[in-house]
Amino acid sequence: MSAILKISQLSLCLRYAGISERILRGISLAIDSGEVHGLVGESGAGKSILGQTILDILPRIAVIESGTIDFDGQNLLRLAPTQRRGLLGSEIALIPQDPMTALNPVRRIGQQLADTLVLHLKLNRKDALDRACELLEEVRIKHPRRALRQYPHELSGGMRQRVLIAIAFSCKPRLIVADESTTALDVSVQRQILRLIRELQVSSGTSILFITHDLGVVAKICDRVSIIHSGRILESDAVKRIFSMPEHEYTRALLKATPRYDHGKHQFRPIPKALISTLQLEAKEYDRRIRDSVDA
Amino acid sequence: MTTRYLLNRLLLALPTLFGVVTVVFILLRVVPGDPIAMMTGPGATPEDIQHLRAHYGLDRSLSAQFVIYLGQLAMGDLGTSISLRQDVGELILGRLPVTLELTVFAMLIAIGCGVCLAIVGSYWRSRWPEAIIDSVIGIIVAIPDFLWALAFILILGVVIPVMPIFGRLDLALEYQSYTEFYLIESALRGRFDVTGSVLWHMILPGVALALPLMAVGARVLKSSLNVEMTQDYAALAHTKGFSRLQVILKEALRNALIPAVTLTGVQLTFLIGGTVLIERIFGYPGLGNMAIDAVINRDLPLIQGIIITFAIIFILVNFLIDLINTILNPRLRDG
Ligand SMILES: Nc1ncnc2c1ncn2[C@@H]1O[C@H](COP(=O)(O)OP(=O)(O)OP(=O)(O)O)[C@@H](O)[C@H]1O
Ligand SMILES: [Mg+2]
User: Would you call B329 and A106 a contact, using CB atoms and an 8 Å cutoff?
Assistant: First the structure.
């Protein structure tokens, strides 16, 4: 299969007053068309920053040092701003983490759904609202007509997440970045939302970069998975292979640290401190090599 | 629901109004200065003075005066002006439209320019346009409206005399108004020469009044826009393919207006209060100008009437601000 998104040697740092901290260290990652690709790592590993780089919503202090992000044969990082905006929402979309804050509190659901339809599909307002209603039906919102006229605070968290999913899929994008899209929901809602995303993904053939720190979620929804730590991809392979024969020591530790319900009794073991400090040393080593090569 | 809430707000204004009426009544009788002595010449006999005191009800006890005064107020009777010897209500109604047109004009300038400045500053966040806007706002905020008025008169009226600095209308223009709303009335009647002249005369006093409100409003709105632009929904809007300007206008602006409207509401009442000095400086025939004459002449009924009118305007403005916030913020509507 051909890769819809191919990231090569992506490095990025954040520049605060004077100091600069490297967050991504030579990330390489390929997402095939039609696959759900998990990105797993602990908090602060750089998962969200990687997603934000693809979506062009990095904080102002972020500086991309090197690397390419090829989407459909063109390097996103070299595109003119208007061209890049043309892809956002239509070819590349986001399912955000927190359904409570990701919708605009003062705009009706219908308006917020219509945005991409008007902008990219050039529908007029009425057609856009009709289409928005269909989209709400597709994500199984009970009274779609009424929901169109409602404000976010009138919907539950699960309903809002469905609206956000409808927005993401509205223009049938080829890639969706889902950043911890189910973390803020309770377990039963989380299961429904995962099933919904998977269903829409299969029927539309969209690829998804599924960011999470939960290997249980990866097992449910992902085809392949990449393990990230300190801004480095440690390994990347089919979910089945990673779960049965993890290569990297950190992946093995992560698996042991994840409670699994399918194996009768499972011992929960925290990730060894020594392993973490080894990984951090390796990251420092990477930074030193970069510095040396720049100085040379 | 919403209408009930707003009605309640209006009803709550009644005690406020009563408080204003009481305080004004007491204050004016405590301050020194005898209005009758002011209106009579040095040749007046004690009988004349006694007669006049009785005529204006000033010979009764304070409490009796207060009760009579409240009774008249309830009937909509504001009494008779001592210095002008006309009905206070009529005097005020004759001047109110002048001041209303000027304040609304100033408010529109302030809101229009303030919102534009805030949007421009937020759009070029951390670049030179924001720095320039910040320093301009800083200067404007530091200078009160009447100093702007004096500066305008000096520069645009005296040094380079391009703008009118006195009155409301070109003296050469003949215009018989029915409502005193010169601007609107003349435009509706097709007398555009009058409309133009009224507008031209309004510019300097209007801008002087508008500047402080504009600066405060722009500062508050820009910082709340900058906060809104870091919210999750703004990031989502970017990923929908909106440009930065679209995100500001379609998503952030309305959210940012909610705190900005509340915080600038106070400044808006300063603008209305500012008309007193500004109208005096520009010889503008409005309520504020009349208020100063009334104070100079110790014209108690007129002063009372004008203060009550201003109080009602303030109460209505606050009510309007509440109303705007309810419209802007859907979360307030179920309350
Ligand atoms: N806007 C920002 N300002 C300053 N630092 C930031 C910002 N965003 C991210 N960082 C820093 O960059 C690093 C990586 O953050 P990132 O959000 O990518 O982590 P993550 O892997 O998504 O973690 P989590 O699982 O907690 O979401 C962290 O050390 C974080 O402190
Ligand atoms: Mg994150």
Answer: yes
